[in-house]
Amino acid sequence: MEKIIIVGTNEFSEYVYETIRIEKKAEVIGFSTLKEHLTQKEFCELPIYPLEELPNFFNMDDTLLLITVGYTKMNKRRENTYNICKQLGYRLYTYISPRAICDSTNIGEGCIIMPQTYIPPVTKLGVCNVINVGTIVGHTSNIGDFNWFSGNVTMGGNVMVGNNCFIGMNCLLKNGVNVASQTMIGAYSCLTEDTVEGRFYSGNPAINTKKLKSIVVCDFI
Hints:
By secondary structure, the protein is α/β, with parallel strands linked by helices. The protein has 2 domains: 2-87, Rossmann fold (3-Layer(aba) Sandwich); 95-202, UDP N-Acetylglucosamine Acyltransferase, domain 1. The chain has helices at residues 11-23, 72-87, and strands at residues 2-7, 26-33, 42-43, 46-50, 63-67, 95-96, 101-102, 106-107, 112-113, 118-119, 124-125, 130-131, 142-143, 148-149, 154-155, 160-161, 166-167, 172-173, 178-179, 184-185, 190-191, 199-203, 206-211. The strands form 5 sheets. An 8-stranded mixed sheet has the order 6-9-12-14-17-20-22-23, with no helix packed on it. Strands 3-4-2-1-5 form a 5-stranded mixed sheet. It has a 5-stranded parallel sheet with strand order 8-11-13-16-19, with no helix packed on it.
């Protein structure tokens, strides 16, 4: 089994950790966060290490990082954490649940694909996307980087998703739509038309209701 360190100490980090532990897909040997955010010594009964100092504790040739930072500021904090990890020369783990169906061979590093999801062939995912439980990605679709798909999202085919998007629970994306970067789609919405960057959409059919502020989602940190 791969040995991994989970980057993040939040509710989503615990959720991912427990899922991996139950599935026995990898061995989580600890958690990590930036030194400035280090306020405790343990999380889920495992030690927490400063991200900047991981090579002092582990052989990083044998250890991978899994980023579980949430969707704060439209996934920007997760993107920043990813960039720090890459600058430090760390390798990232891509978690694909064995209870998911993933037929795509083009999945970017650092993605988290939870149980009961479906990723078909001829579909591309960029880096560090989170695809939550029950989500169905449409065929021949292209998803960019640092996106968050909440549970039970359903996509038609040939959907294009930019970067740093948030798609709420039980959303439906019509085949062929283009979701611009920095788009937020509210829960239970049905998107039938292309979006404009930096806007919030909701309803059935989903309409643009407002422009996003600089800080729009601050649940997991």
